[in-house]
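Proteins fold reproducibly. Next comes an illustrative record:
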Amino acid sequence: MLLSSVLERRLLWVGGKGGVGKTTIAAALAVLAARDGRRVLLISTDPAHSLGDVFDQSLGDRARRLLPGLDAMEIDPDSEVDAHLSRVTEQMRRFAAPTMMAELERQMRLTRQSPGTQEAALLERLARLMVSEAEEYDLVIFDTAPTGHTLRLLSLPEAMAAWTDGLLSHNKRSEELGKVLKHLTPKSGDRIDTPFDEPEDVPFEGLDERTREVARTLLDRRRLFHRARRRIENPRENSFLFVLTPERLPILETARAVETLEAAHIPVAATLVNRVLPETVDGEFLQRRREQESSYLARIDATFAHLPRPRLSLMAGDIQGIEDLEALAQQLRSAGF
């Protein structure tokens, strides 16, 4: 894959181990794409937001224009949880007896603190951005959280469908609803690389109106995740760029992540080696660092030989603001983007 084609995709995920410069690289790529005339939306999904700091701008949950053709936003996971649970509560309110509402609301408050709730709400928002909310943009760049968090996001559709099935199984209105749920839930043991089915012939016959509405809601949600996952797996629309530094731990974590994504048929475009010491630096201390770095660069070349491996030099100072990002974007241009 030519590196320049990465920015011609519809979706680009910039990931890697924490602290390797993902946010800065994602921001510079967004600037580069916008300067080339693409309409770009840059989204941070990392709970520890720093995207606004890189641009020296205040960002929130709604897209803000930073440059001609470039909008950016920071998704607040806590706000997504609140909005997600509010939608669930409102829908359940239409079906539950008034005497059950106090218990339902208590369960929703407990759910807010449950493991996985934040990631589940975030995944639904990302799915909507991929499928419909960001249709006005040519390129959507996701500045993701560290690698492990990203992999959980990509595997959550199966887990969420199973969780929904388990939740409703305690209050099924009929055996017929159980038949519908079987069409909407992955089989036990499904893996991350198991493709979703998108059922068309769902047995709604015999369901009362309220049960049918529950089933249709589940089906709509299932199709949303199906379409988002298909888009993620489509190499013509999506690519994943890993940022790493020439150090032992980032190399090991990136190797595991690349292997996992490729096994799941999720296209990995390249690994970008960040903060490489410039050839012009001198001194005994830096010479020793360069020798160590040279061994790690060779290891990167061997480990990721099947992927492009552009390198970016360590810059003299922090990167903050549009001017610094423009300079980094030019480095990326020289590297082949």
Residues 185 and 331 are 46 Å apart (CA to CA). The chain is about 50% helix and 15% strand.
